[in-house]
Write a structure and sequence with these properties.
With 389 residues, the protein is α+β, with helices and mostly antiparallel strands. Helix content is 27%, strand content 38%. It is rod-shaped, with a radius of gyration of 44 Å.
Length: 389
Amino acid sequence: MASRRTVIIAITLTSLLAAYLLLSKEKPLTVTTHIVERGDVTATVANTRAGSVKACRRARLAPTIGGQIALRAVNEGDSVSTGQLLLELWNDDLKAQLALTQREADASASHEAQSCLMSERAAREAERQQRLFNKKLVSEEIADQATTNALALNANCKEATAGHEVSKRRIDVAQANLERTRIRAPFDGTIAEINGELAEFVTPSPIGISTPPAVDLVDTSCLYISAPIDEVDAPRIKTLMDAHISLDAFPGERFAGIVQRIAPYVLAVEKQARTVEVETVFSNPDEFSRMLPGYSADVEIILDSQRDVLRIPSEAILRDRAANNEPAEQAVLVIHDDGLLERRTIISGISNWQFTEIISGLKAEEQIVLSVDRDGVVEGAYVSSEKAE
């Protein structure tokens, strides 16, 4: 009977001890984790503010003189060719002036022809009188008079010719004045906007004051992205580097691009925000048909790329400040099988906002913590893991 009571007491004490140990055990912290794997890593730089899709050629056209719109030869959205008339101001007076100068030129041409014919006749007469004088058939006075008359009429011919040239130049002047009332397409393109209706007055922009153009012409057959890059990143960028282009108008899509131009100056649009404009073109010209000038765009320029290397998400890396301007030490939190965290120093290679290449300090299939900013997530902590979405 005593032995049975002893067994019951022992079992009870054992159960109480197990319950105590279970209840006293530290409750694990829940952390987001990631398995170290192999993959590709690219080092990139991106624009600091949204860039824009721009046309390689865009002309905001306006007449050089003010006047009343007499003709709108095109509408918004029309495709036009080089030299095509787009808009014309009232110019009846200039047309009349052109017609007048043309008639004056016709009259001067007739006067030139008459004067030169008389000059040719006088030259032949002077030659004939000179032959007769050589044969002693006419006096010297008659021969000299014929020569002088020929020279005078030749001068009249030259004067008439010069007058005709002046008349033709007046036609050019009148034609130029008339063309100042017309707007023609300087290249093939599409009419983006027309500011003005028939009978409305338009005026050229005063110096230093920007006004809407009468006609906005865009060449959509060639587009590029202009984006501001921080001055710190600009020295690492070179022309012909590959790039990825993303646009708000096409969510989830990325377009291949090539760096075409790096501005040779720094913009200081805002204090402490100095940037360099970088122009990137689409690698596939077929993409142009889907784009519109003015779309907002972001550019990721690829500085370097490594394939099939050990990599981890960049957010998992802890960076400690280093003294004497030395590189900051980098570390990650590794989860052991018993759920305890170990802080481990690593050496990294190239990186971007998503992934970082691991040169040493980690092995494939090891489990690391992503949610390093949660309270209590430090070396030696007891954790349970949940996979990142």
